[in-house]
Every structure is written in C-alpha cells, then in structure tokens.
Amino acid sequence: MHPALQGLITIIVGVGGCVGYFYFSNQFLDRVLFPATGKHAGRNINRANQIRPWLFLFPALFALGLYLAYPVFATLWLSVTDRDAGGAFVGLANYSQMFGEPKFWEAMTNNMLWLIIVPAFSTGFGLLAAQLTDRISWGGIAKSLIFMPMAISFVGAAVIWKLVYDTRPVGQDQIGVLNAVWLSFDGGVWSVLVLKLVPIALVAIFAAFMGFVIYQTLRPVIGREKGHGETHWWGYVLRGLLSLAAAWMLWLSLGSILSLFSASLPYGEPQTWLTIPFWNSIFLMVVLVWIQTGFAMVILSAALRGIPEETIEAAVIDGANPFQIFFKIKVPQIMSTIVVVWTTITIVVLKVFDIVFAMTNGQWETQVLANYMYDKLFRANDWGVGSASAMIIMLLVTPILAWNVYNARKETR
User: Fold this and answer.
1) What pLDDT score does 228 carry?
2) Residue 142 in contact with residue 281, Cβ under 8 Å?
C-alpha cells in the first residue's frame, strides 16, 4: 500500500473512531444506562452528568496506562528478574551488578556534570538573549535565529557539530571550524591571550558564580535572612544538595584554572576534540546548550514582558541603574518562571541520549545513563541491568516532575 494512502486511512480511521466513540458512548449513557425519562429522570440526568467527564477522559487514561504505567511496572519487574534464566526472580542482583560497573559510575558522574552545566548555561544565555533582544529594533529576527536550533532534531544537531569538531590528518585542509581556528594560533601573544587568559577568566567567573550560588543557597539556612516563613525539611535537603553540587563545580573550576596555567598547548597540531577526556563532555554539552537556549529565551521573554511597568518606573525614579533594575527588580519577579525553565531543561538533560550516541557513542569517558541503558539492553542483551538503569533514570526524573507539578498548582491557587 502506498504510504500516502496508508496515512490517509490512518487519519480517517483515527478521527472517525474518536467521533464514533464519543457519539455512541453518550447515546448509550443517555438512552440505555440513565434515560432521562420516568419518575427517576432527574436522578438519572445527574448521574449521567457525573459519569460523562470520565467517558471523555477514558481514551487518554487508557493510553497513559498502556504506554506509560504498564512499561514502568514491566521495566521494574525486568530489573529484578533474570531473562536468561526464564524470568527467575533475582531480587537486587541486577542493581548490585550495575553498581559494581565502572561504566555506570562514569555515566552517573557525566550526567551530574551535564545536570549542573547545561541547565545553568541554557537558562542564563536564554535570559540574557530575552533581555537584550527586547531592547533592539530587529529583536524579532534575532529571536528567530536563536530559536531556530529548536527546530533541529538532536541527531541533526549532533551531525552539524560533529562537522564543527571534525579533525583531518596533518597537512590536509581542516573542514572542522574549531580545528581551523586552532591552527591559526602559533604560540605568540595572541595565543596566550585567547587560549589561556580568556579561558582562565571565564572559568574564574564561573567559579565566582558557583560561590555566589552557595552563598545564596545557604544564606536562609544560616539565619542571615529573615521573614520568609517556615522552611520544610525537604527545602533544607534541596538546599544542601544544591550547595554540594555547586561546591563540587567550584572545586573542579579551581582545578581547571590550575591546569590551564600549567598546560602546554600543542600549537600547530589538529586536535581530535571528541577524544579528549573531560573536555569532550563539555563539547557535547555545547550542542544541547545551543538547542535549549532558544527554548529558555522564548519562555523568559514572555515572562519579562509580563512584568508590571510600574515597578520598573519606580526603580528608575529611585535612581536604580540598568543592572540593579535587571537583577533586583526583574529577575525576582520572574524567578518562578526561571525555576520552571531550569527544571524542564534538567529533565531533558537526564534523558540525553541522541547527542552522545551520534557523536561519541559513550566512548572516551563520555558515557551517560541513557546511552548506558541502550548499550545494556540492545548491545549486551542484558535486560536486567538495562532495566535497572532505566529505573535509576526514572527515579532521578520523578522528583523534578513532582516539583514542577507542585509549583504549577501553587501558581494557579
């Protein structure tokens, strides 16, 4: 059958089936189950109206149960059984095996690194772009260009950036943009300035930002900030975890600064960027930041436009400069939106697979949880450990989803 005809039949059957379901289910409800006739007509009408919403919800609930709830329980069962032994129950043996593998901890470490860097930079660049594009006449064009990567699939973006990082042997023309730029430096003053001092300054700024995050996170806990009401125990736990993550990044940043100071850079030699440990993960993160910045910009731009002009005018009258207006007036008013954008990107990061699979396939210490799960399930055919890693991903994503739902409900109250 021709694909176009097959698609047309699918649309007709799908739409016709939905219309038929809603029509005949309502007819059955009103004419057979609870007819609006006789001495109980009023009671039947009330009961029919109570049941009718569930008729409309049933297809969605059924689809969610079939394609979401059932796979979760099936995966959980597979994670505690041995498929090669006929599905015998093995308890936590698969989890024990997984926790004993260095590749799993490599994936966990890389995922935590992605978790800290990608949402922070995507949200930061998105907020910066949202603020700046609203101040220029051609801001609409700029927003379209920044948002354009969102229209590209992760695999397509990975292919584009793999060409950017491409390496050819010495003596051949470099088609990779990064290597072409790298070979233009010869070790002179500009090389030291661009390849050492500028990176050191950027890492130092990032380290200072991490220190600021630690201070802001712990300030309410150590009692310097009053008047914010009682904090729940889970609030202290979240603040502690965020502080530990920021402290870890601060430690890595300081180590990177020392490494950059003492590094002897191989000028004039093409670099295989995706095989350099640690930095190759950073190069992969750049791809996702490039994609997600447009998403953050659109959401935060709408939030910035929703800020009441009266608050900004009052700040101007009080003598606030543009930086004070932005950081002390605008950002606090859109903080809930920033948190939603941050957590949404965090969920994407926890499930990242396509970029790593297409660019490095988890080699050279770039493994992440989703790619580790794929390797176990479909390469090693180890369904137990693969399912266990899938459950780990779900456990990491679920609290963030719950937090988003909680904040959404709190905003609607």
Assistant:
1) 47
2) no
Q: What angle do CA 295, 300, 301 make, to 5 degrees?
A: 100
Q: Which residue's structure tokens are 């456990």?
A: 395
- Asked if pLDDT for residue 227 goes beyond 60, the answer is no
Residue 232 pLDDT grade (very low, low, confident, very high; cuts 50, 70, 90): low
Which sign does the torsion angle of CA 351, 397, 241, 94 carry?
Answer: negative
Structure tokens at 198: 């500028």
Side-chain half-sphere exposure of 261, counting CA atoms within 13 A? 9
Give the residue from 145, 177, 146 showing the smallest Cα distance to 161. 177
Instruction: Give the C-alpha separation, 213 to 120, whole Å.
Output: 11
> What letters, b where the CB count within 10 A reaches 16 and e where it falls short, cover 178-197?
bbeebeebeeeeeeeeebee
What is the spatial distance between Cα 339 and Cα 347, in angstroms, rounded to a whole number? 12
Strand partners, 82: 88
